[in-house]
Amino acid sequence: MAKAVNSRSVEPEPVKGPVDKAMEVLEALVEPGGPHRLGEIARRTGLTKPTVHRLLRTMADHGFAEPAEGGSYRSGPRLLGLAAAALNDGRALELARPVLADLRRRTGHVALYAVRHASEAVYLEQSEPAREYRMSARPGRRTPLYACGVGLAMLSVLSDHEADAVLRSAPLEARTPHTLTDPAALHELLVDAALNGYAVEDEYDEPDVRSVAAPVLNGDGRVVGAIGISGLTFTMAPDSVEVFGPMVRAAARTVSSGLGARTPILGVVDTTSRGERE
Predict the structure, then answer these.
(1) Is residue 44 domain-shared with residue 176, that is, in the same domain?
(2) Number of continuous H segments (helices) and E segments (strands) in the chain
(3) 172 φ, ψ (degrees, to nearest 5)
């Protein structure tokens, strides 16, 4: 019998309104490597240069963008202030920061905190990065949930319906030769993650990088984020995951407890549903 493949109905692309265009320009503006030239932002957004220029000028007038050298633009002071205020107002992030610092100190690897937005993981905080190498999973970066440790950790505690909405709504892109793109294989991985209390990602997002992550839950038992560590494969050997996994799980549960979550019992998983997903 032929295997079912990812499919989606063909629907007309929604017309972009002024707010949609402004959000796309703002998103391109804060991408790493700034300041960004007008032409670069136009290419990233698919908008015309006159439209991008008009939106950037409006953002600059309100302090959300700031002109830089050579006709480029960077994030403005008002945008930076709003971002700082939003981050400081988050209880989960407040609890996560000291936990990340401790995890970094005890494991020697970069520790990360991320949240979910639709089908992506958005990194919000990173412990002091290692000087020997630079990790791409820095604050502000977005990665598909299925391709990163923190994303898999969050998926592992979603309902079957929610997880399927992420894994089967559209074809999954292979970001490296090791990326799992088969929903059935990913479901098996999620079952293991639910049983262990942590997920392992092995070069799914970028070559030579391995990560271990665990979900953070709130008082209602809903996932609000994930804590993880990430390192080069030669510094995080597969057998070390058995040591680091429980450490990351304990760190995530520390934050979850601070948010009022009940600490789950290790090894308890609903095998009648998640364990039998094909």
Answers:
(1) no
(2) 9, 9
(3) -95, 130
From 64, 82, 100, the end of a domain falls on: 82
Residue 178 has pLDDT above 50, yes or no: yes
Q: Which of 255, 266, 262 is nearest to 220 (CA)?
A: 262
Locate tokens 């949930």: which residue?
A: 145
Closest to 200 (Cα-Cα) out of 188, 183, 191, 213: 213
Name every residue whose Cβ is closer than 8 Å to that of residue 130 and which is 6 or more positions away in sequence.
108, 109, 110, 231
Q: Are 54 and 147 part of one and the same domain?
A: no
Residues 162 and 241 in one domain: yes
pLDDT in tens, 72-131: 998 888 887 787 777 666 789 999 999 999 999 999 999 999 999 989 999 999 987 555
Choose among 34, 20, 31: nearest CA to 141.
31
Q: Mark whether 201 and 221 lie in a shared domain.
A: yes
d(CA 203, CA 180): 10
Q: Strands 223-232 and 65-67, how do they pair? A: unpaired
Is the confidence at residue 66, as pLDDT, over 50?
yes
* CATH code, domain carrying 118: 3.30.450.40
For position 274, what pLDDT does the model report? Answer: 47
Q: What is the CATH number of the domain that holds 56?
A: 1.10.10.10
Of the chain, the percentage scoring pLDDT greater than 70 comes to 85
Is 8 a domain residue? no
Strand ranges of the sheet holding 223-232, from the earlier edge strand across to the other edge: 142-144, 120-126, 110-117, 223-232, 209-217, 199-202
**Alpha helices per DSSP H over the chain:** 18-29, 38-45, 49-61, 77-88, 91-107, 149-155, 160-167, 183-196, 241-258
pLDDT at 246 over 80: yes
pTM for this one?
A: 0.78
57 and 75 share one domain: yes
